[in-house]
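[job 0417] fold request received: Starvation-inducible DNA-binding protein
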Amino acid sequence: MDTKRKINIGMTEEQRSGIASGLSRLLADSYTLYLTTHNFHWNVTGPMFNTLHLMFMEQYTEQWNALDSIAERIRALGFAAPGTYREFGELTSISEVVGVPKALEMVDHLVFAQEATARTARSLFEIVDAAADQPTADLLTRRLDVHEKTAWMLRSLLEE
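[job 0417] inference complete; emitting structure tokens
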């Protein structure tokens, strides 16, 4: 007896696989962004310490909570979610930060990372729309709202 039941949710396996692959890239970007933001929270110094320390904590907490939603959507589509540093390193579009940058360099790096994560999320809409995958579209819309708003707030700190 075959114990693995076929998934029949109105999308082909090819559609589900393509969406899960894209969501895996989004999960990798999101995890890299989370880890980078948490690192910066721990290591920020200078006159803006308190402001950035608290802001980074709010951002990494939000990011941490989002990871589960993305991974669970991949699982709901019938695929394993990536979950190792190696897998995330291969899938992410965000470069690892070496050393401890100065406070405003941290902010600049996070602007790039927020925007990169938004681009990854946005890149999935074509396949998601073609598959009429409203739950994933909803997830992507929520993530885009957060990443675009956070990038704007961080960019505002870089203005004179």
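[job 0417] notes: Residues 13-157 form a domain with the Ferritin fold (CATH 1.20.1260.10). DSSP finds six helices and no strands in the chain.
[job 0417] exit 0
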